[in-house]
Amino acid sequence: MTEAVTPERVAVAGYGAIGRRLVRELSDGIPGLTLAAVATRRLDEVKRAIAAHGMVADVVGLDDLPHVCDVAVECTAGHLLPQIAAPILQAGKEVIVLSAGALLQHPELVAAARQHGGKLTVPTGALLGLDVVAAAALVDDCAVRVETRKPPRALAGAPFFDGKEVDLDAITSARLIFEGTAREAAAGFPANLNVTAALALAGVGADRTRVEVWADPALDTNRHTVTIASSAVRASMTINNVPSENPKTGLITALSVISLLRKRHAPFVVGS
Fold first, then answer.
1. Residue 192 belongs to a domain with what CATH number?
2. Residue from 53, 79, 106, 224 carrying the catalytic annotation
3. Residue 62 maps to which CATH number?
């Protein structure tokens, strides 16, 4: 007789465009996993929303996460990542991080995971080819660039524009907004360019990964083109992501996390 396996308790931190999709998917059922809780700073509002959609889940504060789950999926604003991740990592548990840019600003979280036996996982998200990038980075001469093109409204509110006279609504043709390193891009566009941080973390690092950001009013997708050049491989990969209800986030991001969760206890897995 096969011994019953206790499902992993998964909590979703954040109830925005991505969080809502993940909560629905976990509520419907993913083998080997159970929806433990939804963590938010908007307790009453989220409780009402979950009940209105016919789902059942405990709604807790962010500080309660280490006590209610085995793994937490972070899909909040990047500045909240240390508050969410540090206690979970100190408890030797796992955080799936969507705000990858915040990891570049908080390397102490990686140290905490190493020290306490916790784990940080960054899903592929809205990008592609991270397996190729990781392999290519093993060659010393590897160079990685990413060109991101988004509709101007998808860049609105980024700290990069503070103190600059840039009217995004007035842009009528493709315009180069930023060029620099992935570390600089993560600081200037913390809610817009988590893909570049994931690329840097998978590959040659935040200071060697080059980034261009374009505002392109002709686009209705978020387009990322990754170029790799090395003695081992030369590659160019482009992805066009359809925005979710949040124009800064592609629909594929939530689907990428769902795919990751479905692989955790699957008997047959293809791809990394």
1. 3.30.360.10
2. 224
3. 3.40.50.720
